[in-house]
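Honest question from a wet-lab person: if I give you the sequences of every part of a complex, can you actually get the arrangement of the whole thing, not just the pieces? Trying it with mine:
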Amino acid sequence: MTFYGIIFYLLAGLLLISTALAVSRRRLVHAIVYLIISFFTTALLFYLLGAPFLAALEVIIYAGAIMVMFLFIIVTLQLEKKEPERESSLRVWLPAVVLAGISLALTAVLMWAGSDHGHLLKPAMASPREFGGYLFREFWLPVEIASFLLFVALAGALYLGRERTNGQKTTDSKPEAS
Amino acid sequence: MVPYGHVLILSTILFFMGAGCALARRNLIMILVGVEIMLNAAGIGFVGASLRWGELAGQGFVLFIMAVAASEVAVGLALIIFVRRHTGSMNADKYRLLKG
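Yes, you can. This is the full assembly:
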């Protein structure tokens, strides 16, 4: 096993552990913090697999922007104090675990049955300049569509998040229970 | 380094962790977190495939996955705030009314 292989398995183990902790925590803030660790590890994995630009974007967008947005919402709505989540029963988890096990087993069988077995990945690196050139040469239309999608998301978030002022005024920030 | 199958298996395990989180947790924020984990796992698979076949298209797809994830989280969190303002609850089991 090569040096890079050892690093890959270390990162994979760290990624699996931190993600498993993130999905199983009952306090939301703890889950988000474990998820930040998971995304940093993913960024390292991207770098190892030859995508330095995506590694930087992973840290900036996922671990930076998205997770901070989650934390901001949790702190703003004060979700922790209001209603701690009920203990999920085995009845809820069992179908998900069974289905995941079946699909995972099928994936593993397909992996071992395929002809790709034993072909090791070779370390390579795509420089950000090369990647950017490729992106705007081959994928200029999807890039424009992605920017339009972000604009639509901005408009949608503004529309959904605005305070209703017509009719009854909800000046108090406390949500009324229905 | 490692066989591509191992990258794909890692990505599959992560995907099903996210799917289980989105299916079994009842808190709306944890459901969104599960969707994020699933998108991230798909990205790992794409980057591995990009290295396996020496094509940059896989990395391009990951960029678009990130754009979709960012906009999805923005709209999703706005929806969470909206629905909480209306019902006062974050539990997905408590939404039983279709009244607007």
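Two things worth pointing out. The mean pLDDT of chain A is 83. Chain A has two domains: 3-120, 126-172.
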